[in-house]
Amino acid sequence: MNGVQTRLKCKPNVKRCKRFVFPSHSPLLHHNALTAKAISHFQADHILTRFVFPPLRLFGGIYGVNAREISKRTEETLQRIGLYEEQHTLVRSLPLGWKQRLAFSVAIFHRPELVFLDEPTGGVDPATRRQFWELIYQAADQGITIFVTTHYMDEAEYCDRISMMVDGHIRALDTPDGLKHRFDARDMDEVFQKLAREAQRGEHAFTHTQTEQP
Q1: Lowest-pLDDT range, 7-16, 119-128, 201-210?
Q2: What's the mean per-residue pLDDT of the chain?
């Protein structure tokens, strides 16, 4: 497990919601329903149903979305991600990029305030990656904070704020332009290379990015 994944798995111990930070022992977080509705997590391999449309209905029900709204959101979502004609298709037969779009749509179906995306574009072609980021932008426009981990430095440019880790510690945190100015770099790849040279261990620096509403 690398530094990014470790941090992502530890992140639920401190729930960040807009400008407020609640420690894990806070009474506000002992209300399971409140926590579940506020936070979501993306994993493309966790679609447990056989066909495309049931996951949206299933998770909508789990998170307390009423039946009428589930039907409305399901149709809108499938249209938006281009899977409306594939709703009776076996999930396992879908290309990886389509599975990722479906999994992300499931994660945000109940309109959480915060979503964790652990390397959501890994293993797909550049065009599919860019399409996935359009979905991320749409979710951010709805007021959802998106916390993303990635090893693609060009994706860091898409984010509002970037945090870079060296030897398991956050070494830099700023906007893309702010980091490039600070390290006198042309792009995020050059920022990353400069930070990676500071690593004390045999491993390179690790990166995670964050996209959120102001």
Answers
A1: 7-16
A2: 76
* Type of residue at 89: T
DSSP string, the chain: --HHHHHHHHGGGEEEETTEEEETT-GGGS-HHHHHHHEEEE-GGG--SSBSSHHHHHHHHHTT--HHHHHHHHHHHHHHTT-GGGTTSBGGGS-HHHHHHHHHHHHTTT--SEEEEESTTTTS-HHHHHHHHHHHHHHHHTT-EEEEE-S-HHHHTTSSEEEEEETTEEEEEE-HHHHHHHTT-SSHHHHHHHHHTT--SSS--EEEEEE---
Other Cβ atoms within 10 Å of 189 Cβ, number: 14
For the chain, domains (ranges, CATH) are 44-143 (3.40.50.300), 150-214 (no CATH)
- The residue ranking higher by pLDDT, 18 or 190, is 190
What confidence tier does 160 reach under pLDDT thresholds 50, 70, 90? very high
What Cα–Cα distance (Å) separates residue 107 from each residue in 29, 43, 46? 20, 8, 10
